[in-house]
Each structure stands twice: as structure tokens, then as C-alpha cells.
């Protein structure tokens, strides 16, 4: 079979992307900077089953998404277009989004610090023997790394922050790290956004637990309740509080006047004879308290040894 022409490749790519858009409703948009073809192949193997990885030029993907949205009338697909910026790819999945994201994160490959590369993390050279001979000390001197000669090799005395996150890697730093065999950076697909049935959200949402959601919902209900009470606007969240507050107001009026109603009668009765408060609650407590000392006394009787009588001893106190 001969090679496909550019036009044929575009048609095949359009067809594949349209098929995936129809078949899958969940898509992870991933950054693919510094990810090689071999590494990408490993990721595809690891995700095989519920997920499909599709790479391509942003212009081609945007064009296909627009045309497919027009043909199907599903404008939700258009939410993907703003996400197709930079070196990105798409992972179509039917699996659990959190599990797929975690699986993608496993495939990271160590990489050397190349000259001119922007460091994604801080690079710290650890102390210890480098295995390099004393003729290599010039590298360390240029970078102001304290060293000493130990048993014919260069030894780094203290840990050194060689490169800071966001800085470009210089030629001296790159050469030293290469000599030390340190591959400080690791690269893989990074999830940037999540598309789910037309909704787009940050991958951090995938880390939310049920407890987090319940806490956020409870916080929202509290805010709605507070706002409703403040402006006296009835809502389902504020209704119980409004009823209780209304009951308190009516009860206050009943106590201050001759007006009464069944729920207020008992409160008035207690206010007229406060001693009933003491009778209502402590009766049960007293019963329990009375039983406890009796039980304690009974226990004490059991534990206390019987005293021998004087008669048993064979003499009387008056003998």
C-alpha cells in the first residue's frame, strides 16, 4: 500500500476525530511538551481499553471540531476549541476521569538538563563523592560549588541549589550535571483541562472527595440561609429558621400579654412556678443517684470482711 497524500491524511484524520467525538463524551486535554514518540507509545499501551490518545496540529483539530459541530448541531463541541492552545493532545475516555489522569501521570521519563531549557523545578546537587578526578574541579569553581579532594576524587561538601525553577539552564550547569550523571527533569503528559459532555473544568476538580463536595454544599446552604434571613426573603434553606423565629416572637407576645395558645401555656406555667423546673428534670437524676449509693453500699458490704465477734475469740471485753 502506497503512502497517503496530504489531502488523504487530512481526510482520514478528520474522519477519526469525528468518530471519537461521537463515541466519547469525556476528553482530557493534555500538554505534550518534551514527550517523545517512544514515551507516547508507552502511554497509549498503558491506557489501552477505555481510552484513546490522539495528537495532531491545533489548526486541524479546531477545523474538524468546528465542521463536526455544524454538521451535528452539537455546539457543545465548540467548548474544546479554546483549549487547543500550545503543544496539546486529546485523550478520549470512557473510564473514570480521576483514574485515567492518575494513570497518565505514571508515565514520566527522566531527562537531562539541556542548555537553554527553562527549568520546571529547582535543581539541587547533593553533597558527596562525585567520582571525578581533581582535574575536573574547574567546573565546580565556575559555579561556586565548595569541594574538597578525598582519596583522589572530588567531593562536594554541602548541597548546592544549582538551578532555580524558571531559570534557563546554562552551559556550565548542563555540563556539570551531565558529568555527574544527574537527569534532573522528568516529562510526561500533563492534564490541563477536562471536557465532560460540554462542560469544561480544571483537573483539580477530579481530586475533590465526597466530603469536600458536602462541605462546599453546606457552606453554600449557610450563605443562602444567612442572605435570606437578612433580607427577609423566604427560601427552603431559611424556612425552618423563619418558623422558629416567628414562634419566638409570638411566644414573647403571649408571655407579655394575656393572649395565649397551647404551646405558650406550658411556658407560662413554668414561669409562674419556677420550682417546676427543678421537679421536671432532677427527678430521674435523683432516682439514678439514689440507686447508685445503694449499690455502692451493697458492694462495700460484700468487699468488707466479716469482723470476728468477741465470743468467737473466746473472751469478752470485760474479762
From TrEMBL:
Domain of life where this protein originates: Eukaryota
Pfam families registered for this protein in UniProt: Ribosomal_60s, Ribosomal_L10, RL10P_insert
Keyword annotations: Ribonucleoprotein, Ribosomal protein
Record-linked InterPro entries: Ribosomal_protein_uL10, Ribosomal_uL10, Ribosomal_uL10-like_insert, Ribosomal_uL10-like_insert_sf, Ribosomal_uL10-like_sf, uL10_eukaryotes
Coiled-coil portions: none
SUPFAM superfamilies referenced in this protein's UniProt entry, alphabetically: Ribosomal protein L10-like
One GO term describing the cellular component: cytosolic large ribosomal subunit
Molecular function GO terms recorded: large ribosomal subunit rRNA binding; structural constituent of ribosome
Stretches assigned to the Large ribosomal subunit protein uL10-like insertion domain: 113-182
The keyword Ribonucleoprotein appears for this protein: yes
Family as reported in the entry's similarity comment: Belongs to the universal ribosomal protein uL10 family.
Function field: Ribosomal protein P0 is the functional equivalent of E.coli protein L10.
Protein name: 60S acidic ribosomal protein P0
Chain's gene name: 60S_1
Amino acid at each position: 500500500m502506497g503512502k497517503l497524500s496530504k489531502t488523504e491524511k487530512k481526510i482520514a484524520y478528520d474522519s477519526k476525530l469525528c468518530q471519537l467525538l461521537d463515541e466519547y463524551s469525556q476528553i482530557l486535554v493534555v500538554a505534550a511538551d518534551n514527550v517523545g514518540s517512544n514515551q507516547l507509545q508507552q502511554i497509549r499501551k498503558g491506557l489501552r481499553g477505555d481510552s484513546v490518545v490522539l495528537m495532531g496540529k491545533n489548526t486541524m483539530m479546531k477545523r474538524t471540531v468546528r465542521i463536526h459541530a455544524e454538521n451535528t448541531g452539537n455546539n457543545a463541541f465548540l467548548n474544546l476549541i479554546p483549549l487547543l492552545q500550545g503543544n496539546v493532545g486529546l485523550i478520549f475516555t470512557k473510564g473514570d476521569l480521576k483514574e485515567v489522569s492518575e494513570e497518565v501521570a505514571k508515565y514520566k521519563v527522566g531527562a537531562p538538563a539541556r542548555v537553554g531549557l527553562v527549568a520546571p523545578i529547582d535543581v539541587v546537587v547533593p553533597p558527596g563523592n562525585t567520582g571525578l578526578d581533581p582535574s575536573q574541579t574547574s567546573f565546580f569553581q565556575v559555579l561556586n560549588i565548595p569541594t574538597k579532594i578525598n582519596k583522589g576524587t572530588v567531593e562536594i561538601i554541602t548541597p548546592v541549589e544549582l538551578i532555580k525553577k524558571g531559570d534557563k539552564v546554562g552551559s556550565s550547569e548542563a555540563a556539570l550535571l551531565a558529568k555527574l550523571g544527574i537527569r534532573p527533569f522528568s516529562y510526561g503528559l500533563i492534564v490541563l483541562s477536562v471536557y465532560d459532555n460540554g462542560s469544561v473544568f480544571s483537573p483539580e476538580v477530579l481530586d475533590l472527595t465526597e466530603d469536600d463536595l458536602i462541605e462546599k454544599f453546606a457552606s453554600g446552604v449557610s450563605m443562602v440561609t444567612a442572605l435570606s434571613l437578612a433580607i427577609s426573603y423566604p427560601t427552603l434553606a431559611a424556612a425552618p429558621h423563619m418558623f422558629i423565629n416567628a414562634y419566638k416572637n409570638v411566644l414573647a407576645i403571649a408571655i407579655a400579654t394575656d393572649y395565649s395558645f397551647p404551646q405558650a401555656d406550658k411556658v407560662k406555667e413554668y414561669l409562674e412556678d419556677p420550682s417546676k423546673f427543678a421537679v421536671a428534670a432532677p427527678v430521674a437524676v435523683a432516682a439514678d443517684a439514689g440507686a447508685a449509693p445503694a449499690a455502692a453500699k451493697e458492694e462495700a458490704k460484700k468487699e468488707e470482711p466479716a469482723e470476728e465477734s468477741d465470743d468467737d475469740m473466746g473472751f469478752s471485753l470485760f474479762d
